[in-house]
Amino acid sequence: MKVKAIKFKEKKEKKVREVSDSPKTIIVVLKGALISLAVSLVGILIFAFFIKYVAVPTNAIKPVNQVIKGVSLLIGTFIALKKTNKMGLITGLLIGFVYTVLAFLVFSILDGHFEFSKTLMNDFLFGGIIGAICGVIAVNIRRK
């Protein structure tokens, strides 16, 4: 009778990213908010030129501005979270909030006066919700 030596297969340990390898949340949030702000400024500038040469009804300006803000947050969140695979909801929410504050400051400086109103609170809420949704989507999309 032959005795067979049983070999146990060694399980290869999965490489787990350490906390020091992942980007810092504050840097990711600032990066996403600043990219969103830059995209938003370009989008508003293009829309302003469009308004100058084409007759646009005044009731269409606010929805277009919201679309520009949403697309800006989408782009900024996707770029900021491309190397992260967790905490998309929280990071996206923070990107949306920081973007809203920065956009308020920049556009108020460009306008010449600061006005705290119900619209600012709606923008703050809109920015947080859209940022959170974009963060979840950005983290869960499979990268090839």
Question: What can you tell me about this protein's structure?
Answer:
The chain is built from four helices and no strands. By secondary structure, it is mostly helical. The chain has one domain (25-140). α1 (25-53) packs across α3. The N and C termini lie far apart (52 Å).
Give the SSE map.
Blueprint: H1 25-53, H2 61-80, H3 88-111, H4 118-140
The string of secondary-structure elements, in order, is HHHH
Rough shape?
A: elongated
First and last CA, distance? 52 Å
Q: What class do helices, strands and sheet pairing give?
A: mainly alpha
Low-confidence stretches: 16-21
The fraction of residues in strands falls at under 5%
Number of domains: 1
What composes the largest sheet? none
How confident overall, as mean pLDDT?
83
- The percentage helix is 55-70%
User: In DSSP terms, counting alpha (H) and pi (I) runs of 4 or more, how many helices?
Assistant: 4
Over all CA atoms, what is the radius of gyration?
A: 22 Å
Counting DSSP E segments of at least 2 residues, the number of strands comes to 0
